[in-house]
Amino acid sequence: MPSIIQIDSAPNSVLSNPLRIGDNALTLMLGPCAVESYEQTRAVAAAVSRAGVRVLRGGAFKPRTSPHTFQGLGLEGLEILRAVADEFGLLVITEALGVEQLPLVSDYADIIQIGSRNMQHYPLLWAAAETGMPIMLKRGFMSTVAEWLAAADHIISRGNERIMLCERGIRSFDNATRNVLDVGAIALLKTTTGFPVIADPSHAVGRSDLVLPAAKAAIAAGADGLIVEFHPDPPTALSDAEQAISADEMDRFVAEIGRIAVAVDRHLPHANYAPAH
Ligand code: PEP
Ligand code: MN
Q: Quick one: which of 64, 123, 271, 277 is 20 to 30 A from 149 by CA?
């Protein structure tokens, strides 16, 4: 099982070295829950690249609990993501909700996200695997670690080992936070498997003020990176507004995660990788 996933640098990145997920350098993936407009996504990409982050997250196809809420911009969202990512030299991670979206998503993205609700959607896992692209497999919010690893096995069974596991919180008896971040599972996976582990503190806690402390715990437990929701104007976000961190919070977030990284013999690339704008 490869413990590092290597992805070629984005076309316009000033960095020529590939991104190595699972390496000593932590990987941050930041961006909005949903791509809402070109302006919003461009503002995010500019801030994200200034902070030294190499991966832009953003949903174009959104798995919303209610069909009456914003469902994402679809293809237009993918086009926006790719355009602004290319402008700022960023890689793109975005979710494919169904098998039929994979040809599109694999054209526009660098990493395919499999969402929590789809962790056991085996035909989607097989089809994603067959693209040969890196896959971030989010944990089903009601799934055991064993079920999660079996889902990863489905991807491997179709010849793709470029898998990172994403702990995004599980449902418990207590709804004081949106979900419960399973920090023990992060440590367990790092001890017993070779998969890179990414933590998603945003969906775990569901509140912007708790995202940083949860992220620190995840990194201290051994996570190889974080995927975090960030919005230029959180109160106006069309999805997951309560958990989005703002531009001001992002600077503090990156600085504090960098300090925790050093405490566990990792580091965060802090350099300004962005082309001047
Ligand atoms: C997301 O990343 O925006 C998302 C929908 O996450 P999850 O699948 O973990 O709920
Ligand atoms: Mn979200």
A: 64
Nearest residue CA, atom 3 of ligand 1?
33
pLDDT tens digits, one per residue of 212-255:
999 999 999 999 999 999 999 999 999 999 999 999 899 999 99
Cα 41 to Cα 81: distance, rounded to the nearest angstrom: 7
Q: Give 187's contacts (C-beta < 8 A, 6+ positions apart).
A: 221, 222
Tokens 């829950």 sit on residue: 33
Beta strands in the chain, from DSSP E residues, in sequence order: 5-7, 19-21, 27-31, 55-57, 91-95, 111-114, 135-138, 163-167, 197-199, 225-229
Domain boundaries, the chain: 5-263
What angle (nearest 5°) sits at the alpha carbon of residue 188, between those of residues 186 and 190?
70
In this structure, which residues have their CB less than 5 angstroms from ion ligand 2?
33, 240
Which residues form ligand 1's pocket by a CB distance below 6 Å? 33, 59, 63, 115-117, 138, 168, 200, 203
| Class of the domain covering 5-263 | alpha beta
- Find the 49 Cα to ligand 1 centroid distance in Å: 22
CA of 276 to the centre of ligand 1 (A): 32
Closest CA to 86 of 52, 131, 56, 61: 56
Start-to-end Cα distance in the chain: 41
Give 138-163 pLDDT, tens digit per residue.
999 999 999 999 999 999 999 999 99
Q: Are strands 197-199 and 111-114 parallel, antiparallel or unpaired?
A: unpaired
- Whether residue 274 is predicted with pLDDT greater than 60 in this model: the reply is no
For residue 142, how far is its CA from the centre of ligand 1 (angstroms)? 14
Q: Model pTM? A: 0.96
Tokens at 76, concatenated = 């237009």
What are the structure tokens assigned to 43, written together? Answer: 């503002």
